[in-house]
Structures are given as C-alpha cells and as structure tokens.
Amino acid sequence: DKQATDVVLLDIKGVCSFADYFVICSGESTRQIKTIYEEVEHALKKEGVLPNHHEGNVESGWLLIDYSDVVVHIFASFEREFYQLDELWSEASPLLRIQ
Question: Both ends of the chain: CA-CA distance in Å?
Fold first, then answer.
C-alpha cells in the first residue's frame, strides 16, 4: 500500500529453522523505506501483532522486522541486488511476487 516494489513472499518452512515465511521488498528512497517499515509495523500492531526484533536502519538501506514466524526485509534497490536474498533462499517456495 505504501509503494513497496518487487514484493516477494517466500515459504521457507522446509529450508529454515527460525521462521516460516520471508517477505522481501524494496523501496526507492530512504524516505520510502522508512514509510514502508512504519506502515508494516502500524498495520500489524493494529492486529495485535508486535515484532520480536528489529535490525538495520534506513541509512544502511536494509531494515528487518522479525515477527518470529514471519521475517520482513525492506531493502534499498542496491542493497537488495547486493545481498540477493531471493537467490540465497532459492530452495524456498515463492508464494507471491508483485512487481
């Protein structure tokens, strides 16, 4: 809803022991990355779901929100290309891709 790009939902249950799903998305600017991050937290908090852990910061181009079973990764385009999580977890089953 906040203009995240290249959104991917991966089912990682069969290849990962610490989570069931990864959500990976990109933002085009630091402002947009921060907005996506805040909107994810706000929407889930309204549903009573609170994060267990946060990592990264807007300036680094990567933010992570850990909800135990679901881990949300928000990247700047350059960092997403560099870290290639989609490829790193290529054994996972893609459930959704919105480009």
Answer: 13
Q: Structure tokens of 9?
A: 């939902």
Burial of 11 (0-12, 13-18, 19+ CB in 10 A): middle
Q: What is the pLDDT of residues 1-49, one digit of tens each?
A: 558 999 999 999 989 999 999 999 999 999 999 999 999 999 999 999 9
Tokens 């852990």 correspond to what residue?
53
pTM for the model stands at 0.92
Q: Is 41 helix (H, G, I), strand (E, B) or coil?
A: helix
Distance CA 85, CA 27 (A): 15
